[in-house]
Specification:
659 residues, alpha/beta, seven-stranded antiparallel β-sheet, 25 strands, globular
Length: 659
């Protein structure tokens, strides 16, 4: 915030000083070049799977859903959803510099735009910086050449082979600068690799710098795997319980951690342990006054063999696995093991958060994790978690070498001509945000539609105790049109409105990766994303038959429809977020950043002596000749270093001027 305030003062005062801009092509000009060859990095994998055959017997194409107008007459509703977007993000610490920005003065504009679109719909979003790498993360006074992040060998034998992260104080200022512009709240994790010499600097500095924007501190990441991963010789739920108690004693004795009741646990992966084994230690009763929330982490499958030991030949067959993501039971089976934990959380007055999840651990599956089918899966999973009284879920974000990212910056060496890439599941986060809205009153129920067909689930959403929306799914893939649905909605006693309005998530096939649209808009294809929606919003109006108490809503095969009963609902008018961070000037071949000449002249960006040092710090990051493709991005290197430092500052100034 100090940076942005200072820049605003300088700009308003008309103060000028010298800035060096490297390698710039004059604004408004472009340079043509042959498109580079496609990358082989997992985030840009081209695998297209064969959609499952139409099921036999097929689900009924025309069926009725009868829903009550009032929540009081609707059994089984969830607790009210509140606290911003249901889906947030869990960003692996080793890739922060690929996602948020290089440092506190160089934030990535596409990331800000993506979050702005989500926040406009939901009011806020939760982001965790953590994962396996948090367990060995260490604060250091400085890193060579001015880096904010570094890494070293952790010595862990865990499956994902993640490095130990080194970070400087600038990480906290980076987070704070994001929150100064957007309503982003954060989670961090206290390292658990050394329970004798606790490293609590992340708690001290997080609370001091982030204040209320730091929601909580995770105590242990998947502790049920500590013994298997060699972090403890022997380990048990009781041992974990006792270590949390020991950490609390350290926190209580530390005056630099003034807020002492924002811990998060147990974050078990439901691998060697179930959550119940931790609850049986008395964890909730003992620590509930110290907890922000209860947490678990879980993935439906893993791709660890293919990613790390493919020579074994035992990798998951992705084509055979694909159909398992395209049925309602996938979501139901993921949530059902946690229904007891959800009940305990409600009784204790604590949120329950799925603190890390995605399509599969170890990076997800090629052909599945970035498909339209995965978007349907993430929608169903999110609705089902909310119905099961989870308060939030965090989708995990990795680097270039994973398949499941909601969003991915271009490789560093492509950042002067490529933009970002949005994964299909980011559309799911947008849609759930619109479905639940910003009233903090949304309650969800699984309707067991179409006599419980696993291919055509449906949910009702009530706001302020009145029917607000219906979510309709069609998992069947059938280009012939013979599996398209005609869903007849009726409301007993109250009757249907004169019309409803419908937003559709559309793609030609469940295996499709590109040309996915939400209400006619898209973020763009691979390497084309600046974080803003493209195209005109298209909301369908359907006239209802009030005489026969029926609104008939079509849903394509495959397809998803969000039906709005209140035709004045604010979400219907939201296409592109009103608060955006512009990326419209021309540089080396593609649009990258709009820079006010006055701000450019008064920027205090990095100097020529240190600009070469700000490279990627993440395991698996690409360099030079190994990765390339057509598109556009804001992860910069070389000549754009000085320019985009200015852009980050300019974004903050523009926000302050507008607000």
């Amino acid at each position: 915030m100090l940076l942005f305030s200072s820049l605003l003062t300088l700009c308003l005062a008309g103060y000028a000083q010298g800035v060096t801009v490297y390698g710039q092509i004059p604004l408004g000009q472009t340079r043509s070049a042959d498109n580079p060859q496609a990358t082989t990095a997992a985030a840009y994998n081209d695998t297209l799977l064969t959609p499952p055959a139409v099921p036999s017997p097929a689900p009924a194409r025309a069926f009725q859903i009868q829903v009550q107008r009032d929540a009081a007459n609707t059994p089984g509703l969830s607790i009210p959803h509140n606290g911003g977007a249901f889906w947030g993000f869990s960003i692996e610490m080793s890739v922060i510099s690929q996602v948020l920005g290089k440092n506190s003065t160089h934030l990535y504009v596409p990331f800000l735009n993506l979050m702005s679109n989500l926040i406009e719909r939901a009011g806020g979003v939760m982001i965790r910086l953590g994962g396996n790498t948090q367990e060995f993360a260490t604060l250091v006074p400085e890193l060579a050449d001015g880096h904010t992040f570094g890494k070293e060998e952790s010595g862990s034998n865990q499956t994902t082979k993640t490095p130990a992260v080194l970070y400087t104080m600038d990480m906290f200022y980076m987070m704070s600068n994001v929150s100064s512009m957007l309503n982003v709240k954060w989670f961090l994790g206290i390292p658990f690799n050394d329970s004798v010499n606790w490293r609590v600097q992340i708690a001290e500095n997080g609370q001091q710098i982030l204040g209320d924007n730091l929601l909580g501190l995770q105590v242990g990441n998947e502790p049920d795997f500590y013994q298997e991963f060699g972090r403890r010789t022997t380990y048990s739920p009781q041992a974990y319980h006792d270590e949390v108690g020991a950490l609390i004693q350290v926190i209580d004795a530390n005056p630099n951690i003034p807020v002492k009741n924002k811990l998060i646990g147990p974050s078990v992966a439901t691998g060697p342990w179930t959550p119940e084994l931790v609850w049986e230690t008395g964890f909730i009763d003992t620590y509930k006054d110290r907890l922000y929330c209860l947490s678990v982490e879980h993935y439906p499958n893993n791709n660890c063999i293919a990613m790390f030991t493919p020579e074994s030949g035992d990798a998951v067959d992705v084509q055979a696995t694909f159909p398992s993501y395209l049925v309602h039971t996938a979501a139901v089976d993921l949530v059902s093991p946690y229904l007891n934990s959800a009940s305990l959380a409600v009784a204790a007055g604590k949120p329950l958060i799925m603190f890390e999840t995605n399509t599969a651990s170890c990076g997800g599956f090629q052909g599945i994790s970035d498909s339209y089918g995965a978007a349907l899966w993430a929608l169903d999973y999110g609705f089902q978690m909310a119905y099961g009284n989870f308060t939030h879920g965090l989708l995990h974000v990795g680097g270039q070498n994973v398949f499941y990212n909601p969003f991915t910056a271009p490789p560093t060496n492509q950042s002067t001509f490529n933009q970002w890439t949005v994964g299909s599941i980011f559309y799911s986060t947008i849609i759930l945000a619109e479905a639940f809205g910003k009233t903090n009153t949304s309650r969800i129920v699984d309707l067991n539609a179409n006599t419980g067909s696993v291919y055509t689930p449906a949910y009702a959403i009530y706001e302020n105790d009145v029917l607000s929306k219906l979510a309709l799914f069609n998992y069947v893939d059938d280009a012939s049109g013979n599996s398209d649905l005609a869903v007849s909605i009726s409301i007993p006693t109250a009757g249907v409105p004169a019309s409803v309005r419908v937003k559709y998530l559309e793609a030609d096939s469940v295996s499709q990766k590109q040309n996915i649209t939400w209400a006619g808009q898209t973020f763009g294809g691979r390497f084309e994303v600046d974080g803003r929606f493209k195209g005109e919003e298209n909301v369908t109006t359907i006239t209802c038959d009030q005489t026969n108490n029926a609104c008939i809503v079509p849903v394509a095969a495959p397809g998803f429809a969000l039906v709005f009963f209140d035709t004045s609902d604010a979400a219907l008018s939201i296409g592109q977020a009103t608060q955006t961070f512009s990326t419209s000037a021309y540089t080396k071949g593609h649009n990258t950043a709009t820079v006010d000449p006055l701000v450019l002249a008064t920027s205090n960006g990095h100097s020529g002596s240190d600009r070469k040092s700000l490279g990627s710090t993440s395991e698996g990051s690409k360099t030079g000749s190994s990765v390339s493709s057509a598109g556009e991005g804001m992860t910069v290197s070389g000549w754009t270093q000085g320019l985009v430092v200015v852009v980050s500052a300019w974004v903050g100034v523009q926000f302050l001027l507008r607000n």
